[in-house]
Design goal:
Elements: E1 2-6, E2 10-11, E3 14-15, E4 19-22, E5 25-28, H1 30-39, H2 47-54, E6 58-62, E7 65-68, H3 69-72, E8 79-94, E9 97-103, E10 109-110, H4 112-117, E11 123-139, H5 140-144, H6 151-186
Antiparallel strand pairs: 1-6, 2-3, 4-5, 6-11, 7-11, 8-9, 8-10, 8-11
């Protein structure tokens, strides 16, 4: 269950801590920028482009719980999830195939398939929050608002997502190969 969902405004009457005003320019909190940099979504973007992207994200806080991502909150629909702090497990079925992720390091990403696939893919997910957590949510529709004003930002984010997914696939393939080699060696099958 979520505690709060904040975006460029106030939270319980207090100014939003994640954004600082400097003249007319909103400067994202360092934790937001750190999570974006660690996620590598902002790789090859200039500082002003990173600030443009950072101003599109929503900060969401979760308390310890377990819930269906699609049923609980529309803010999760078509949203990329970037861990700022905490410990979250995501278990999903994409089509009929199970996928699981454990977000524990700031910058870890989840819900990539929902973000890029939208309504074209049948994705059902359960999110288990193991300790109080904060995530950044980037709605696909918000990123798409930059298509005409800042197409380079959209291009870099999508390219960096493809690189991320490719890296995950390579690591999983290497783990599978290592496990296979271990099992065949253990049972004397050469």
């Amino acid at each position: 269950m979520k505690l709060t969902n904040t975006q460029h405004g106030t939270q319980h009457g207090n100014p939003l801590a994640a954004m600082h005003m400097m003249g007319d320019l909103m400067i994202p909190d360092e934790r937001v920028l750190r999570a974006l940099h660690i996620s590598r979504l902002v790789e090859n973007l200039r500082d002003f482009e990173i600030n443009v992207l950072a101003n599109l994200v929503t900060i969401q806080y979760f308390e310890i719980s377990e819930f269906n991502a699609e049923l609980d909150d529309d803010s999760l629909k078509d949203a990329l999830m970037i861990l700022v702090e905490g410990d979250i497990e995501v278990s999903a079925f994409v089509g009929n195939e199970p996928v699981s992720l454990h977000l524990e390091v700031p910058g870890d990403l989840a819900r990539i398939i929902s973000f890029v696939g939208g309504n074209l893919m049948n994705v059902s997910a359960r999110i288990k929050v193991n300790k109080g957590s904060a995530v950044l949510l980037l709605q696909r529709a918000k990123l798409e608002t930059l298509l005409f004003s800042h197409p380079a930002i959209v291009y870099c984010v999508m390219r960096n997502l493809v690189r991320h997914v490719h890296g995950v696939a390579r690591r999983k393939n290497a783990e599978k190969e290592e496990m296979s080699n271990y099992l065949y060696s253990m049972h004397g099958r050469y």
